[in-house]
Amino acid sequence: MVTLFRILKYGWQSFLRNGWLSVSTIGIMILALLVFEGLILFNVMSKGATQAIQEKVDISVYFKSNVSEDTILNLKKSLEGLDEVKYVEYVSKDQALADFKARHADENTITQTLEELDANPLLASLNVKAKDLHRYDSIASYLEKPDFSDSIEKITYAQNQVVIDRLTALIDNFQRGGFVLTIFLAFLAVMVTFNTIRLAIFSNREQIGVMRLVGASNNFIRGPYVIEGILYGAIAAIVAFLIFIPLIGFISPHVANFIPEVDLGGYFNAHFVSLLLYQILFGIVLGIVSSVVATRHYLNA
Amino acid sequence: MIIFQNVSKNYNHNSVALDKVSFKIQPNEFVTLVGRSGAGKSTVVKLLIGEERPSKGQIFFGSYEVNKLKPSELPEFRRHIGVIFQDFRLLTKKTAFENVAFALEVEGRLQKEINELVPPVLDMVGLKDKAFNFPAELSGGEKQRVAIARAMINQPDVLIADEPTGNLDPFNTWEVIKLLKKINELGSTVILATHDKEIVNTLGERVITLEDGKVIKDEAHGRFLID
């Protein structure tokens, strides 16, 4: 008990008495943690962006004008039975016309032309949304079966296939790249912090030697350094977080301009506590591990 | 009792620091270890406190066989020995009081005991007024007196001083030597490694003379006999 209390006391004391060293170590850790935090938000953003793009892709099946609604609804049902399909939306001829009119309400020539026509020139259609981008191929081949060829006028997939394929490849690469970047930057942040703490302890190696000479046990020597590491980590985490709050406020509207589906500020507010805790946990673990590894070298010598 | 039995220490294949050194030191003796720089004095000290291991031979310290101690046993062992060095080796971020107290804290002594034990010892080495100064604020002589206070605070069986006066002026040198004599009178064995002829001759205690890693003379009331 006495020893534990002393370790805590000395950790705190040494943190204060090594003022500048503490400040610069914390400074470096703040940078590392900002990278860490930035990575979390980058992943939120890239996930949001890819999702937004995926949402925009679908296949539309247009039916010949003589096909009955029942046939279409039957096909809808069988499509909904497919594993790959997320949902199917039926747009009737009337609905299509209404949508078209609404879209072109301001354009007089178009409305007038439509009124002059006797029949509705638009086709009924099914909009098919797949669970993910890779599934459109098999949905398209399902629709191309000869059973349906009589009733189907056209399938947009064939027209959009190149774009969809490119998009799929792009998103895959983006996600893979983001993962690699995350690993790399996290590694960088860990190494920088680790080495900073190591240097701080390196400058104390003679002191460690003196403590050993006086008969201090390894834990009694290491303890205060670990406490210091915890303090570095916790303080750096909190400061980094405080820096992030206004930064998010500044960036969030710009990101929303670019990708409307991504609400960084909203995400940040919703996950405020867990983000802060993650950050503190990350900082503290980094501080402890660095201190233990760095002192071990001088304790075994 | 300290026994060195045929102790040799080689640092490389051809550099011999100690060559079959044997001697015994009885409890409460005052022994000076003399010799030129490089004669092996510091090696004897390092082997005795377990900082290094002998290449050959055995070293006994009371019930401990020092050459066989595991790293995990060293901290407890070292609490029986007080050590003083030429370069003081104080904890620079701790005050004089805290430096002395540290030797008690490593034993897990209570704060109450520490507060009772440290002031008289600081008083004895004449640093009552500097208790809350950091080493950087103390003179060389004062630093060495802090080191002595730290070395003697837990009443060690043996106090080892490796060139303790090497960085001090004549006045402080004699202050340190007087303190060592006093500690010896209080019941600790004192081993003083030095190359200061005047100190050795004035003390008139047992002198073990080392040359090229060998004991060339061991006299009960020796004199410094190296040119």
Write a structural description.
The complex is a heterodimer of chains A (301) and B (227). Chain A has helices spanning 2-17, 19-56, 69-80, 93-103, 108-116, 136-143, 146-149, 156-202, 205-214, 218-258, 264-270, 272-300, and strands at 59-63, 85-91, 125-130, 152-155. Chain A is of the alpha+beta class and 301 residues long. In chain A, strands 2-3-1-4 form a four-stranded antiparallel β-sheet. In chain A, α8 (156-202) packs across α12. Chain A starts with a helix and ends with a helix. The model of chain A has no long low-confidence stretch (mean pLDDT 83). In chain B, the strands form two sheets. Chain B has a six-stranded mixed β-sheet with strand order 6-7-8-3-9-10, with helices on both faces. With 227 residues, chain B is α/β, with parallel strands linked by helices. Chain B has helices spanning 41-48, 74-78, 96-105, 111-124, 140-152, 170-185, 197-203, and strands at residues 2-10, 16-25, 30-34, 56-61, 64-65, 81-85, 158-162, 189-194, 206-211, 214-219. In chain B, a hairpin with a 2-residue loop joins β4 and β5 (64-65). The longest helix of chain B is centred in the last third of the chain and has 16 residues, at 170-185. In chain B, α3 crosses α4. The mean pLDDT of chain B is 90. Chain B has seven helices and ten strands. Chains A and B meet through α1 and α9 of A and α2 and α3 of B.
